[in-house]
Amino acid sequence: MKRKRNKKYYFSVEGQTEKWYLDRLQFLINNEPSSVHYVSFVSKVEKNPLKFVKSVTHIDKIEITHLLDLESTEPKHIKNFEGSLDLMKKASSLGKQIKYQLGYCNFTFELWLILHKIDCFTFFDHRKSYLKPLNRAYGENFSSIDEWKEEKNFKRILNQIYLDDVREAIKRGKTIMQFNTKNNYRMIDYRGYKYYLENPSLTIWESIEKIMKDCALI
């Protein structure tokens, strides 16, 4: 039997829940016999992409995905979001060996998790609105997003996610972005990174799809 090659993927993430999700995905891929590779996710909770790059030891060319939320269209949230894009661009300019990818969710990472189980194509006017579809998707009754994010609760939820769910989330993420394009929503191009102000929208599925394809799981 041919020995599986180990492939590394790099992520900087804004919060602990994103890192826990990546840990779960790594576990699922590495325990799937049909995967043609083992994967190793180098991930760190670091809001500053520039700091993350400086902490990474590498020789070959690497791509890094920064996972972050576009929390609303309020000026302060747009400023914070574009500030992160500024740092990603600066980090990419440190050398030809580094390329930063954008993996955003509008409004929040919870949108990506919902898509693993059910459709979520509805516009919301507040981040807290994701609680109801989260509870429906995972058969829970959490009273707040903070309760949902508690480590014991969140990791229990992650145990309900399997590779088939990841495939469905990718499909649903694509459908959302195709809908936005079809309806001529304005795509913002900032520093070479593209995003929609409208929710729902997201690009996190792009990096996850690449990993799944590399492993011949899609």
Can you walk me through this structure?
This protein is of the alpha/beta class and 218 residues long. It is 45% helix and 21% strand. The chain has helices at 16-30, 49-55, 75-92, 109-114, 131-138, 145-149, 151-158, 163-182, 204-214; strands at 5-13, 37-45, 62-69, 98-106, 187-190, 193-196, 201-202. The strands form 2 sheets. The chain has a 5-stranded mixed sheet with strand order 2-1-3-4-7, with helices on both faces. It has a two-stranded antiparallel sheet with strand order 5-6. α1 links the parallel β1 (5-13) and β2 (37-45).
Cross-sheet strand order for the largest sheet: 2-1-3-4-7
Mean pLDDT: 92
Q: Report the structural category.
A: alpha/beta
Could you estimate the helical fraction of the residues in percent? 40-55%
**What separation lies between the terminal Cα atoms?**
22 Å
Query: Main β-sheet: number of strands, strand sense, barrel status?
Result: 5 strands, mixed
* Dominant shape: globular
Poorly predicted regions are: none
> Compute the gyration radius: what is it?
17 Å
Strand content: 15-25%
What is the string of helix and strand elements?
EHEHEHEHHHHHEEEH
- Quantity of strands, as a count: 7
Count of separate DSSP helical elements: 9
